[in-house]
Amino acid sequence: RWERRALVLMAALIGSLYGVSDEFHQSFIPGRFATLDDVVADMMGSIFGAAFASWFYVLKQDGRWSFRFMR
Question: Is the pTM of this model over 0.90?
Fold first, then answer.
């Protein structure tokens, strides 16, 4: 259980750092701006994405999520 939490945290951190670097690079492009709002949005997306992926994985492992409709 702690390993999954550490993986979620690591994924969220890596995604957040990528978002920060993306905003930094945007600041060099004419007509584009790096804003704190965009950095926060990138971080929230990374956190929610990592948490959702973990939740989906748990549902699939527990057998509570089935792909019968795709067969």
Answer: no
